[in-house]
UniProtKB/TrEMBL annotation:
<protein>
    <recommendedName>
        <fullName>Tafazzin family protein</fullName>
    </recommendedName>
</protein>
<dbReference type="GO" id="GO:0007007">
    <property type="term" value="P:inner mitochondrial membrane organization"/>
</dbReference>
<dbReference type="InterPro" id="IPR002123">
    <property type="entry name" value="Plipid/glycerol_acylTrfase"/>
</dbReference>
<keyword id="KW-0496">Mitochondrion</keyword>
<dbReference type="InterPro" id="IPR000872">
    <property type="entry name" value="Tafazzin"/>
</dbReference>
<keyword id="KW-0999">Mitochondrion inner membrane</keyword>
<feature type="coiled-coil region">
    <location>
        <begin position="247"/>
        <end position="274"/>
    </location>
</feature>
<keyword id="KW-0175">Coiled coil</keyword>
<comment type="similarity">
    <text>Belongs to the taffazin family.</text>
</comment>
<feature type="domain" description="Phospholipid/glycerol acyltransferase">
    <location>
        <begin position="73"/>
        <end position="197"/>
    </location>
</feature>
<keyword id="KW-0472">Membrane</keyword>
<dbReference type="GO" id="GO:0035965">
    <property type="term" value="P:cardiolipin acyl-chain remodeling"/>
</dbReference>
<dbReference type="GO" id="GO:0047184">
    <property type="term" value="F:1-acylglycerophosphocholine O-acyltransferase activity"/>
</dbReference>
<dbReference type="GO" id="GO:0005741">
    <property type="term" value="C:mitochondrial outer membrane"/>
</dbReference>
<keyword id="KW-0808">Transferase</keyword>
<keyword id="KW-1000">Mitochondrion outer membrane</keyword>
<keyword id="KW-0012">Acyltransferase</keyword>
Length: 288
């Protein structure tokens, strides 16, 4: 598949995906192998080696599997650890984790996940799409994700745009706003917030997953942007303003979920005999 001129310029090994409207057998076979393998790792790490304090997780499972046919899904969450994706998907059911067609598409930093040919092969097989940070919302990865949404697929995005190692409250990037506003079929947006993944895989050496930790996951309610998108398109809203409006609403929902997740996690840790406090002004949360 030829790359559009100027797009994917900084991808060392070129655009990793074939024509997804008719993907070759080789791509389908490697995805069918890689996705269940990674899904099994996620389930074992999150739900067997560690423990999940889940709230409304059934809503996520329902949206992944039972949303109306042809309706795309965007999930958004905070990003506290390099292992958030894929490990967080351990909250899903085995049948989701083993289905290459069901599992999410997700942007991944090109300068981390696509720096070697084997990395490019592996992450693209796992439906990770190389995003070039700093190239803006109009780049090949975003166009590719819009195509997948138009086909009714699930896309997960970390709208903070990076691993939030200080756990501070960050302004979300507008890319998620473009995915909602420019999708040919308006997607359902499902926000969720998690606390504790930075203890499963700390953001400092040695980068070895831990066991025996607790992770709190709070899933919100679906956000329906159809009426707002239709109204903004009717009045020919400036696309930048539309993206900002959508992103601000998502940020507000994530902020509410953060408060709830931190409250529930603190209560859980107190029951376990550990003193835990949330992040304040950039100070990292943790047990004291």
């Amino acid at each position: 598949m030829a790359e559009p001129e100027g797009k994917g310029l900084f991808l060392r090994f070129g655009w990793p995906f074939p024509d997804m409207k008719d993907p070759p057998l080789s791509f389908r076979l490697r995805s069918t192998f890689i996705i269940p393998m990674v899904g099994t790792f996620s389930k074992i790490l999150l739900s067997l080696c560690n423990s999940v304090n889940g709230h409304n997780v059934e809503r996520l499972q329902e949206m992944v599997e039972k949303r109306p046919k042809g309706t795309p899904l965007i999930t958004v969450s905070n990003h506290y650890s390099c292992i958030d994706d894929p490990a967080l998907w351990g909250v899903l059911k085995w049948r989701h984790l083993w289905s290459a067609t069901t599992m999410r598409w997700s942007p991944a930093a090109h300068d981390i996940a696509f720096t070697r040919r084997i990395y490019s092969w592996f992450f693209s097989s796992g439906k990770c799409v190389p995003i070039i940070r700093g190239l803006g919302v109009y780049q090949q990865a975003m166009d590719f994700l819009l195509e997948r949404l138009g086909e009714g697929h699930w896309v997960h995005i970390f709208p903070e745009g990076k691993v939030n190692m200080t756990l501070e409250k960050m302004r979300l990037k507008w890319g998620v706003g473009r995915l909602v506003y420019d999708s040919s079929v308006c997607p359902i947006v499902l926000p969720f917030y998690h606390v504790g993944m930075d203890r499963v895989l700390p953001n400092h050496p040695p980068y070895i997953p831990r066991i025996g930790r607790w992770v709190t996951v709070v899933v919100g309610e679906p956000l329906d942007f159809r009426a707002e998108v239709e109204e903004m398109r009717r009045r020919n809203e400036d696309p930048a303003n539309a993206r900002r409006h959508i992103t601000d609403r998502i940020q507000e929902e994530l902020s509410h979920l953060r408060e709830r997740a931190e409250e529930l996690h603190a209560k859980l840790m107190a029951e376990k005999g550990e003193m835990w406090r949330p992040a304040v002004h950039g100070r990292k949360e943790g047990c004291v």
